[in-house]
């Protein structure tokens, strides 16, 4: 999975890039736990991802507000959509029933949507912040 994280996904803001790499590592742990059908580990890593994404998005949004990023509203809306999907998965996990279909959906969501968010949304923020930092 870390093969998905390439230099093209770096936005050249150290704090955010470090968080992105940590998220990719956790997504890989989540994928491995799902493949191993280690449901305790799936839940543990998912809970980590949920909290870490919340904090990461908050950090990005603080940068956007501090430096008056013109794309703030759209970017925040993307974060909110991402978090709503995570919260929907959280509700499923709390029912103590995890279907293979839902596991596949969660893996696809974390990998594809996160990569897309980085390459299409965060990259614009990175260009903006590089002129400010």
Automatic annotation (TrEMBL):
Keywords: Iron, Metal-binding. SUPFAM superfamilies: Hemerythrin-like. One of its GO terms (molecular function) is metal ion binding. InterPro entries: Haemerythrin_Fe_BS, Hemerythrin, Hemerythrin-like, Hemerythrin-like_sf, Hemerythrin_metal-bd. Residues 13-125 form the Hemerythrin-like domain. PROSITE patterns: HEMERYTHRINS. Belongs to the hemerythrin family. This is Hemerythrin-like domain-containing protein.
């Amino acid at each position: 999975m870390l093969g998905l994280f390439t230099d093209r996904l770096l936005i050249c803001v150290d704090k955010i890039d470090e968080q992105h790499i940590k998220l990719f590592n956790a997504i890989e742990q989540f994928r491995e736990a799902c493949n191993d059908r280690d449901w305790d580990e799936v839940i543990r890593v998912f809970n980590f991802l949920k909290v870490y994404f919340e904090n990461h998005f908050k950090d990005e949004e603080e940068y956007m507000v501090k430096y008056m990023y013109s794309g703030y509203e759209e970017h925040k809306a993307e974060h909110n959509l991402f978090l709503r999907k995570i919260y929907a998965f959280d509700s499923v996990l709390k029912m103590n029933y995890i279907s293979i279909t839902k596991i596949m959906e969660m893996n696809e969501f974390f990998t594809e949507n996160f990569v897309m968010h980085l390459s299409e949304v965060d990259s614009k923020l990175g260009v903006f912040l590089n002129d400010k930092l």
